[in-house]
Amino acid sequence: MQEKILLDGIDLYGLVVALGGGLLVGLERERRRTWDSGLAGGLRTSMLAALIGALGMLLGPVAAALCAVLVGACVLAGGWPLRHRHRTLTAEFALFATFLLGALAIGHAQLAAALFVVLTALLAGKETLHRFSREVLGEQDLDDILLLAAACLIVLPLLPDRVVGPYGVLNPHKLGLLVIWVMAVGAVGYLGLRLFGARRGLVLAGVFGGFVSSTATIAGMGQRARADPALTRSCIAAALASNVATLVQLALILALVSPASLVALAWPLLGAALTTMVVCVAAMWHANGGAADAGAAQDYGRPFVLSHALAFAAIVAVALLGAAALQDWLGPRGAFAAAAFGGFADVHAATLAVGQLAATATLTPLQAAQAIAVAFTANAAFRCFAALSGGRAFGRPVAAGLIAVNVVLLLMLGLEPPRF
Fold first, then answer.
1. In what residue span(s) does the DUF4010 domain sit (predicted)?
2. Which residue has the higher pLDDT, 221 or 136?
3. How many CB atoms lie within 10 A of CB 259?
């Protein structure tokens, strides 16, 4: 953390941040004034507003309050005569925000510096934001985004964050997170599709979505492919790209929990990663060469379907109950069976559980690597099942790619019958 630079009690670092932030905002305002002659404020005005805010804080609360009243009065005076109906108060609000951030810089310089950057980005992105809200998003899109926001901010906090039901494996809060993630993947893929086109937007959404749940990402891309068959090839590439994140997370979990198990599984994971890259590149090349994606219609459907997300979470809940029942029935010797059933729902959770068993010497590193491979295989089967949500044209190529990756991992590991 940046230490304060004080000179006779004066926060010099905060003053520098205030002036620098005012300069940053002022540069954007000055460039915009070259074509908007009625714009209030510019380079000098923004720097003065930030400086006044900083000096007011240095002089004390009374001076800061007087400065706020003075700047606020000037802002009101400048924005009061709205002579044109298209005129907005953005410039006046930006000037007052610059003053407030200048005051914040005294004592909270790092936060103020970050907010200065955010303010400048918002001001500079005027055309992009307007185009996004008016041209990219439709009325139905806004309704779906509001539904997703309500699920995140209203429904999810109300779900109990504790285990319920038999075997103590079902957590309503986590299942709710999974539903929201399937919806969010669909929404991100939809926005990427609208902003960057089918070839780039969906693949980027697939890669980032895979870091939370590759299965949910595949299900979300399947929904997108079913909603718009013209985008099927790009959705296939995005679904396969999510597998990269799964392998990376697998390696990271083992590195933290059981490094010895990671060593035993290193070469199979590397082979699976290389195979994943090959199938992803092949899918992307196939998507780029497809005429269907190139001429995709402008009607991209809806960002997500709530009923599909709920059905997917229900399947995961059943899989978790089955894994717990197997482990309870078979006992410690059921580690492989439990890993298989647990991996069917979440390969990362299964990997974490197996890694902890290896860390406590319950399993040898080789046995742990074999159990994780079994969990990965079960999860691949579940992802193939999730791919069928997009129809045969989507599900078959995705399943073929996942099977190829899984076969390489098993062949390189050379699975042997478990020995206890």
1. 181-389
2. 221
3. 14
Q: Which residues contact 387 (CB under 8 A, 6 or more apart)?
A: 218, 222, 239, 394, 395, 398, 399, 402
- Chain Cα centroid distance, residue 8: 46
Instruction: Find, among 256, 224, 282, 259, the residue nearest to 405 by Cα.
Output: 282
**Alpha-helix runs per DSSP H in 258-305:** 259-288, 291-294
Q: CA torsion sign, 263 to 264 to 270 to 276?
A: negative
Quick check: 283 pLDDT over 70?
Answer: yes
Domain ranges across the chain? 6-124, 137-413
Quick check: 270 pLDDT over 80?
Answer: yes
**150 Cβ contact list (under 8 Å, min separation 6):** none
Token pair, residue 181, equals 């993630």
140 within 8 A of 45, measured Cβ to Cβ? no
- Give just the sign of the alpha carbon dihedral 338, 340, 345, 346: positive
pTM: 0.53
| Rg of the Cα atoms in the chain | 27
Amino acid identity for residue 69 in this structure: V
Q: How far apart are CA 73 and CA 223, in angstroms?
A: 53
d(CA 313, CA 317): 6
Instruction: Give backbone dihedrals phi and psi of 7, rounded to 5 degrees, phi first.
Output: -135, 105
Given a cut of 50, whether residue 295 has pLDDT beyond it is no
The answer to whether 225 touches 236, Cβ cutoff 8 Å, is yes
* Per-residue pLDDT at 257: 74
